[in-house]
């Protein structure tokens, strides 16, 4: 029976060829180097768990998925061949399966670490595929084989492989967040049970049936086969019931399943205790370590059974979380230590002498290591305060690291011996493979470097543009609770400096990571940290990076309010941000204004700018027009609709154009059903009494005036309160050309005004008008419209801008960036003509004044035109003249 | 501005150089050398592979490498890349990673030639594959850079 271990010392030696032996040794060397590498990474991740957000998850999975899984795949195949007396499967395909497992594991770990669900999914798929192939091989090994007495042990390996397939799928669901918050607890527990007690527990139990008597150096008990079969049905059946029960959230079923599993463990323990003899063991180190591991398995399963019986699942989930280190270190790590202490010398040595040397290496200081490790696990298991757990983890890690160092020594020695024997270098023979691996490693490193530092350029710009100088700071308390973040949504005015005072109130560990921003370390219950996000200018999200938690609902939306008309507090904050963006000065693209209007947002589909070109004065000396007063919804800023009071359905109303001496006969019709309106033309002089009277809804009046003097004139509603009637859009321009006006190539009319958002006539809107705190200052009624649709002229053309300041409260300082006015005509008089030496930079108009300026654009380019009161310019009173060559 | 201007031509030269070099390596590794190993006797095979490698190496050193360095340098200068900006996250760091990987690829290619001439065929082959995989990585990083 001992021959099943390939151990020439305790059974008849096989006569393998020298080549086969060295091939097998090389494979074991490589596989165990992998196991050691995974374990080392796990140790590193475990030691760094306060700084790496997903480090605890990584440490657990590096160890279980990396180290333990590789070891199980290698040894279950090795032992299945031995137990079943079967022909070994093809070496090439064995290697491919092992490579598939390892690459899959690397994909899963990298995917979760870098938060790339696609990579996690691909890794999971590869892992599940490789393990399924492993399962298929294990099943096929049994066919036609002689099936020795220990053939049932192969069933343990088959069941384990099936368990990993299920566990892998469950893990994928959890890590990529395909579970809702409701199912998270059950599925997480199911995943933990099936992987830890199925994929790892079953092969451990199965192997021990044969390994335990071997390390003790006694004959296997007669009833071993029978007991092994019974334990298999108890553990596998129990585990199935538990996993189904947990998935469905039926706790009693889960507890019943665990009771069966525990019975299986008890039966095994009874058998093993009966095997003990009073003679010294072949490998006391292995025997003691394996016994301790079995004891921790019993402890873990009993505790789990107790929890499932007595406590609700959410409590079990957290308690199992703290039980995990016990099983991980006490059972899995210790089984690996015990089994490898005995098995590595067997498979890595060429003869008895070398085997003894390797065993001596691996058993070095074994009693001390055993005590250290188990004392550490005991400290971890006890519900002791924090420092005890830390000391326990340190002790266990020290023991683990010591064994790793010894394993590395053994591997190196064996590798050197193998190289001496075969006269070849270890890595030779597959140059292309090594080349691909090395090339892939340097490429991945380069990509990681390229992606480091977080945030792409665009977010940097967004953060920098409006980030300066906003005075408002807000601190919000954020609680990480049971798979929830409270509050789940935070609204801030643009530019507010936001600080999150994060506290974890949950018994589970959580962290909080802000999109393109800072993150807390993993926080245990009661721990907290303050995150400073700086000025917030765009919507951000934040979430817990523990795998699956974000998808289960642990996310937080930080929303920038589009325009802050609601509270006085936000009003104050937004004016502050407006002052900050004034620093952008002559920037061509002004994106954010006070009041939070987003001028970079798109206009709605089908939006058209108001034509700024002044239509030539119609022929004849009498101009007749009908103006309808009424209210209309108008897009006054990108994406912002406002109900306006209008003349003729537009705000400003239509521009009237004529020459000195012309007569205007305007019929005003009040289409408004709720209020009276009137009209006042500044361009004519007459007694206001009748023409400027207020007419009731449905009425009409005729307003007749002669334009006896030239100028740019305002007309507006004459009904009180005029602040509201003008402030809501009832104004327009009358342009009367001065005699002898020289020809211009282009003539534009710009009516400047303020926009007050809100229900027209409401108390809130009126209050803003009284305070003179508009939401926007605009040219021709719409904020930023000529930024989006620039005015178009050619270089060298003479361009005239008629400007009328409609107010109701503010005038204008009209300026065209990059040009000098050579003609200024203000309030009926030329202040500057082209033949004079001087130049002008701004046409300043008080409220209700008008005039024009002329200039020629020197060359092709984009010339901004602004109200040079920068508060106005930043908040909509700006546009662009696009000059082509 | 013209759609196809002078800078398009510089970029065209840079991209074409990379295409020819990576494509050449792929063609050698996947088509020509496997066929040579299968169809030729050991003597002619060795002479052929050595000659093919040498010719590709000469092309690399005299045409490809100067072309890539010159056009790459010109584009970086045109875009205003400075040494300091190479450390900045985003464009700078991606470009820096690409340059570093390119240097590794060139070292591997040089190492391939040296190993081949010193009679270490397996090492030479490993290095050739490192160079090939690495140059695909360079192309990957290049596609991650916004246009200049």
Describe, in plain words, how this protein is organized in 3D:
The complex is a heterodimer of chains A (885) and B (148). The radius of gyration of chain A is 41 Å and the shape is elongated. Among the domains of chain A are: 425-454; 457-570, Sandwich (Immunoglobulin-like); 622-884, Immunoglobulin-like (Sandwich), CATH 2.60.40. With 885 residues, chain A is an alpha+beta fold. In chain A, a hairpin with a 2-residue loop joins strand 1 and strand 2. In chain A, helix 6 runs antiparallel to helix 7 (224-248) and helix 10 runs parallel beside helix 13 (386-422). Mean pLDDT of chain A is 82; it is low at 1-19, 454-471 and 563-595. Chain A has 20 helices and 27 strands. By secondary structure, chain B is an all-alpha fold. Chain B has one domain (6-144). Chain B has helices at residues 6-39, 42-79, 91-117, 121-144. Chain B is elongated and about 55 Å long. Chain A binds chain B through residues 428-429, 431-432, 434-436, 438-440, 442-443, 446-447, 449-450, 452-457, 460, and chain B through 88-91, 93-94, 96-98, 100-101, 104, 108, 121-134, 136-137, 140-141, 144.
Highlighted features:
heterodimer, A: about 900 residues, alpha+beta, Immunoglobulin-like, 6-stranded mixed beta sheet, 5-stranded mixed beta sheet, about 45% helix, disordered N terminus, B: about 150 residues, mainly alpha, 4 helices, about 0% strand
List the helices and strands and how they pair.
The complex is a heterodimer of chains A (885) and B (148).
Chain A: H1 18-47, H2 55-84, H3 91-113, H4 117-142, H5 152-175, H6 181-216, H7 224-248, H8 251-275, H9 284-310, H10 313-348, H11 352-362, H12 366-381, H13 386-422, H14 431-451, H15 457-465, E1 473-481, E2 484-486, E3 489-493, E4 496-504, E5 513-514, E6 528-536, E7 540-543, E8 555-561, H16 568-581, E9 622-637, E10 640-647, E11 656-659, E12 663-670, E13 680-681, E14 700-706, E15 711-716, H17 722-727, E16 731-737, E17 746-755, H18 763-771, E18 776-779, H19 785-788, E19 791-794, E20 798-807, E21 812-816, E22 823-826, E23 829-832, E24 843-845, E25 850-856, E26 861-867, H20 870-874, E27 878-884
Parallel strand pairs in A: 1-4, 3-8, 9-12, 11-16, 17-20, 19-27
Antiparallel strand pairs in A: 1-2, 4-6, 5-7, 7-8, 9-10, 12-14, 13-15, 15-16, 17-18, 20-25, 21-24, 21-26, 22-23, 22-25, 26-27
Chain B: H1 6-39, H2 42-79, H3 91-117, H4 121-144
Helix pairs in contact in B: 1-2, 1-4, 2-3, 3-4
């Amino acid at each position: 029976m001992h021959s099943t271990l390939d151990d020439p010392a305790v059974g008849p030696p096989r006569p393998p060829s020298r080549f086969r032996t060295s091939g097998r040794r090389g494979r074991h060397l490589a596989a165990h180097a992998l196991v050691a590498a995974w374990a080392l990474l796990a140790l590193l991740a475990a030691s760094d768990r306060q700084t790496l957000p997903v480090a605890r998850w990584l440490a657990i999975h590096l160890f279980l998925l990396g180290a333990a899984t590789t070891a199980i795949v290698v040894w279950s195949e090795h032992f299945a061949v031995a137990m079943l007396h079967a022909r070994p499967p093809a070496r090439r395909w064995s290697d491919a399966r092992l490579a598939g497992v390892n690459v899959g594991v690397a994909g899963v770990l990298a995917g979760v670490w870098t938060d790339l669900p696609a990579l996690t999914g691909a890794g999971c798929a590869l892992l599940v595929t490789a393990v399924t192939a492993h399962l298929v091989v294990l099943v096929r090994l049994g066919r036609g084989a002689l099936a020795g007495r220990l053939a049932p042990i192969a069933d343990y390996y088959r069941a384990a492989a099936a368990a990993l397939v299920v566990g892998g799928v469950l893990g994928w669901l959890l890590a990529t967040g395909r579970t809702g918050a409701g199912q998270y607890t059950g599925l997480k527990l199911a995943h933990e049970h099936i992987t830890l007690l199925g994929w790892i527990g079953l092969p451990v139990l199965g192997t021990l049936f044969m390994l335990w008597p071997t390390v003790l150096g006694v004959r296997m008990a007669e009833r071993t086969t029978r007991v092994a079969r019974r334990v298999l049905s108890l553990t596998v059946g129990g585990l199935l019931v538990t996993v189904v029960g947990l998935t469905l959230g039926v706790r009693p079923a889960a507890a019943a399943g665990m009771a069966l599993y525990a019975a299986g463990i008890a039966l095994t323990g009874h058998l093993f205790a009966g095997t003990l003899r009073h003679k010294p063991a072949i490998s006391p180190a292995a025997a003691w370590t394996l016994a301790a591991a079995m004891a921790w398995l019993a402890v873990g399963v009993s505790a789990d059974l107790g929890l499932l019986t007595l406590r609700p699942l959410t409590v079990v989930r957290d308690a199992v979380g703290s039980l995990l280190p016990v099983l991980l270190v006490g059972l899995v790590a210790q089984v690996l230590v015990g089994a490898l202490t005995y098995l590595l010398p067997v498979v890595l040595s060429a003869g008895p002498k070398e085997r003894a040397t390797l065993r001596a290496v691996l058993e070095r200081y074994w009693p001390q290591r055993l005590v250290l490790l188990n004392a550490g696990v005991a400290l971890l298991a006890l519900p002791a305060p924090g420092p005890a757990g830390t000391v326990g983890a340190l002790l266990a890690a020290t023991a683990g690291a010591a064994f790793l160092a010894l394993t590395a020594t053994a591997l190196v020695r064996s590798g050197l011996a193998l190289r001496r024997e075969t006269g070849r270098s270890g890595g030779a023979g597959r140059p292309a493979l090594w080349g691909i691996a090395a090339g892939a490693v340097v490429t991945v490193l380069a990509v990681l470097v390229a992606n480091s530092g977080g945030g792409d350029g665009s977010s940097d710009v967004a953060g920098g543009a409006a980030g300066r100088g906003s005075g408002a700071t807000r601190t919000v308390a954020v609680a990480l609770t049971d798979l929830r973040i409270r509050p789940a949504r935070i609204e801030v005015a643009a530019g507010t400096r936001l600080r999150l005072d994060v506290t974890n109130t949950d018994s589970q560990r959580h962290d909080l990571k802000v999109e393109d921003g800072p993150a807390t370390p993993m926080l245990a219950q009661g721990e907290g940290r303050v995150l400073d996000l700086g000025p917030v200018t765009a919507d951000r999200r934040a979430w817990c990076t523990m795998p699956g938690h974000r998808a289960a609902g642990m996310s937080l939306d930080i929303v920038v309010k589009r325009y802050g008309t609601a509270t006085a507090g936000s009003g104050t904050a937004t004016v502050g941000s407006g002052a900050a963006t004034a620093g952008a000065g002559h920037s061509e693209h002004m994106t954010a204004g006070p009041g939070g209007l987003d001028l970079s947002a798109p206009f709605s589909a089908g939006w058209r700018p108001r034509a700024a070109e002044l239509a030539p004065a119609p022929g004849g000396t009498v101009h007749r027009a009908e103006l309808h007063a009424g209210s209309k919804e108008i897009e006054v800023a990108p994406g912002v609709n406002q109900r306006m009071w209008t003349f003729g359905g537009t705000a400003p109303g239509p521009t009237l154009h004529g020459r000195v001496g012309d007569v205007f006969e305007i019929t005003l019709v009040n289409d408004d059903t709720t209020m009276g309106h009137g009209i006042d033309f500044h361009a004519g002089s007459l007694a206001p009494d009748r023409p400027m009277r207020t007419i009731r809804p449905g009425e009409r009046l005729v307003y007749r005036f002669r334009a006896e003097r030239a100028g740019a004139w305002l007309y507006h509603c004459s009904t009180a309160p005029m602040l509201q009637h003008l402030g809501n859009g009832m104004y327009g321009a009358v342009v009367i050309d001065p005699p002898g006006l020289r020809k211009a190539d282009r003539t534009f009319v710009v009516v400047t005004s303020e926009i007050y958002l809100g229900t027209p006539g409401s108390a809130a809107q009126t209050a803003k008008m009284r305070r003179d705190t508009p939401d926007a200052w605009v040219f021709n009624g719409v904020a930023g419209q000529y930024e989006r649709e620039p005015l178009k002229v050619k270089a060298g053309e003479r361009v005239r801008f008629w400007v009328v300041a409609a107010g109701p409260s503010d005038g204008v300082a009209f300026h065209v960036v990059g040009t000098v006015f050579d003609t200024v005509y203000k309030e009926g008089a030329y202040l500057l003509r082209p033949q004079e030496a001087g130049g002008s930079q701004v046409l300043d108009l008080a409220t209700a004044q008008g005039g024009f300026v002329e200039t020629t654009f020197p060359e092709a380019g984009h010339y901004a035109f602004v109200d040079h009161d920068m508060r106005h310019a930043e908040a909509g009173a700006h546009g662009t003249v696009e000059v082509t060559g | 501005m013209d759609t196809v201007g002078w800078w398009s031509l510089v970029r065209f030269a840079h991209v074409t150089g990379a295409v020819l070099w990576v494509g050449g390596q792929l063609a050698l590794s996947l088509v020509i050398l496997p066929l040579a190993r299968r169809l030729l006797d050991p003597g002619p095979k060795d002479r052929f592979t050595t000659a093919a490698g040498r010719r590709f190496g000469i092309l690399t050193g005299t045409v490809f490498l100067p072309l890539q360095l010159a056009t790459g340098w010109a584009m970086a200068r045109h875009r205003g890349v400075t040494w300091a900006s190479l450390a900045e996250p985003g464009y700078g760091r991606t470009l820096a990673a690409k340059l570093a990987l390119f240097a590794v690829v060139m070292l591997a290619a040089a190492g391939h030639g040296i190993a081949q001439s010193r009679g270490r065929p397996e090492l030479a082959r490993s290095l050739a594959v490192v160079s090939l995989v690495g140059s695909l990585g360079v192309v990957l990083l290049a596609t991650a850079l916004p246009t200049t």
